[in-house]
Amino acid sequence: MCINRFDFPCAGITEAGYRKLGDRKATWKCNTCKTGTASPNLSSEKTVQGRVPSYGDLENIRLELSKITKQISSLPQLVASVKTIQADISDLKDMKSEMMDVKNSLNHVHTSVEGLTNKLTEIDREIQSLQKTKDDVVRVEHRLEKLEAAVRENQQRSRLNNIEIKGVPVTSSENLFTIISNIGSKIGYEVPKEQINYVARVPQRNNKNTKNIIVSLHTRYLRDNFIAAAKKM
After folding, report:
1. Residues 6 or more apart from 36 whose CB is under 8 A from it?
2. Hey, what CATH topology would domain 161-231 get?
3. Where along the sequence do coiled-coil regions lie (predicted)?
4. Hey, where are the domains in the chain?
5. Is this structure's pTM higher than 0.85?
């Protein structure tokens, strides 16, 4: 309505009044047009609303549309990149979970190693104790060997003092000391009972029914004198 395109209230006329103008609508003017004055804002609005877009404006619009198109065309790549990043994040979460499992396994291994170390320490102490026991056993064995050697030597020496008497029949109520005393009386060399270590019957390998008499004297001299007296008979 009018050149400034006012609304009815702004133009100073009602819609009903404007319709009643009839043919006079073509020549009707608002108060502003009648006086020839216009506010700066109205002039500016008129200029903007009435201006035809130039070639430069169209070119700028085309460039903006091109930029928007490029941005839109890159959206699939951005979406793919986001999905890749999400997949990487998921992989990182899996790796983190695996690392936690590895950490737990290492902790378990560490605990096991500590347990084995403690056991090895105990075993080492036991080995040291066994080594000490072994050393004690070795010392005892050496002493036993010496004692056995001494016993063998004493036995050999005692055998030198032994007299073997053969041919004396075995009786159920015999007294070997009495037999030795009687033999000494017959050969003329009696041996006091106090000079006898022991006297016993010894079975023979070939004849178990016959047992010789073994007399062990305190000294070899007694043995030799007894044998010499017997040989004179």
Report:
1. none
2. Alpha-Beta Plaits (3.30.70)
3. 113-157
4. 1-51, 161-231
5. no
Type of residue found at 63:
L
Contact 163, 215 (CB under 8 A): yes
Q: What is the C-alpha to C-alpha distance for residues 169 and 209, in angstroms, rounded to an integer? A: 10
Rounded to whole angstroms, what are the CA distances from 211 to 123, 166, 226? 59, 8, 21
- Residue-level pLDDT at 152: 87
Closest residue by Cα to residue 175 from 185, 163, 183: 183
> Concatenated DSSP letters for 88-157?
HHHHHHHHHHHHHHHHHHHHHHHHHHHHHHHHHHHHHHHHHHHHHHHHHHHHHHHHHHHHHHHHHHHHHH
- Residue whose C-alpha is closest to residue 194's, from 160, 222, 232, 162: 222
- Model pLDDT for residues 167-197, shown as the tens digit of each residue: 888 888 899 999 999 999 999 999 999 999 9
Q: How far apart are CA 199 and CA 179, in angstroms?
A: 10
- Of 106, 126, 125, 104, the residue nearest 114 (C-alpha): 106
Q: Which of 34, 6, 10, 8 is nearest to 19 (CA)?
A: 8
Which ranges of the chain have pLDDT less than 50? Answer: 1, 38-50
- Between the alpha carbon of residue 207 and those of residues 201, 204, 210, 212, the distances in Å are 13, 5, 6, 10
